[in-house]
Design a protein that fits this description.
Blueprint lengths: L3 E5 L3 H9 L4 E5 L14 H13 L3 E6 L11 H11 L3 E4 L2 H10 L5 E3 L8 H9 L2 E5 L6 H9 L6 E9 L10 H6 L17 E2 L9 E2 L14 E3 L4 H6 L4 E4 L6 H20 L8 H4 L10 E2 L22 E11 L2 E6 L3 E2 L3 E5 L6 E4 L3 E3 L4 E2 L1 E2 L5 E5 L9 E5 L11
Parallel strand pairs: 1-2, 1-11, 2-3, 3-4, 4-5, 5-6, 6-7, 7-11, 10-12
Antiparallel strand pairs: 7-10, 8-9, 13-14, 13-22, 14-21, 15-20, 16-17, 16-22, 18-19, 18-21
Length: about 425
Amino acid sequence: MRPEVLAPAGDMERLRAALDFGADAVYLGGNLFGMRQGAPNFDAEALCDAVKLAHERGVKVYLTVNTLPRNEEFAFLPQFIREAVNAGVDAMIVADLGVLSVIRKLAPEMCIHMSTQTGIVNYQTANVLYEMGARRVVLARELSLDEIAEIRRRIPEDLEIEVFVHGAMCVSFSGRCLLSAYFTDRDANRGACAQPCRWKYALVEEKRPHLPMPIEETQEGTYILNARDMCLIDHIDKLAEAGVTSFKIEGRAKSAYYVSVVTNAYRLAMDYYLEHPHDYKLPDVIRNEVFKVSHRRYCTGFFFGHPNACQYYENSGYIATCDVVGIVDHCENGVCYATQRNRFFAGDIVEILAPGKAPVSMTLPEIYNGEGERIETVNHAMMDFSFPCTQDFPKNSIIRKPVSEDTEDKTIL
């Protein structure tokens, strides 16, 4: 089976980005029962539009129903299921067994994917869920590569395996964390995590509450719960050989630029693997793309044993080396026409990233506004601009500009 590149879609803009840049499938959330309340998400009408658009492009749509709902929330579930069926989603991603039973009753033909929130770490659980109607299991991120392969050997052939290959990692087991609910009354298991694992912490002695003491004696503080981001782009061959069906990118709350670049990187990497299944060594021009989005330092999670290097103690911030400065509208007669996203200047070096391609670097010595007048800076939000270009780029190609020197160590463990 051809492995699937599964991309996040937090709203219609990000859905289009995933479609343009090579996703085989997308996962998205409705207004209820999803683990990303902070994302715009899709109401019933928007969900119909999203599924229609994706299906026109040959892309599947998976709807998240992966919170752990309380008693009073179940009253809203039947209507939510009916709207999903009416929209034509290809599968529902479920964590709660009660939710699973309701879906099986009201929509018996619906394909069920069991969420990573279920905490699936062994073949026995996967087999029981298969007997209950699941056709895909999203394995817990705490599993090693060998454990994934063992599960594959001991489950039915038509039970698919999905794993997270890129994005933020949670300090708790498969997302089941109470820190957010404890500190802020925002329940991480119901889509409202405040990310207290990213906060600074200090020790406070009972009789001296006004004297917080850093756990480590540093000026910056200590981030003992702060995880690096996961990146497995170097190991697609190993995951495919272990029997992984779907390669999942985290990030429904991330930007359209993030979705575009990371989806494109994994699309190119997957295509490269399919062409070189026995000699997979990703070219740097593809590999380096994952470093051109905002990210925390990368690691490989639990896939190769105990993740000694997965915690990041320096800070909880992101590394960002590029800004999106424009989006291509069309190219014609040696001119590229685009719309501004951030300020830049004539003479700047930029990269243009087209779907399914490696980035192309060029200098822009001449820039013109929408009236064809030569200008020195593109500094008005969403303004039209153009520049001479010897190469045609398709609509929605990304124009980006380096904003800091790229000195990051690109070693991924």
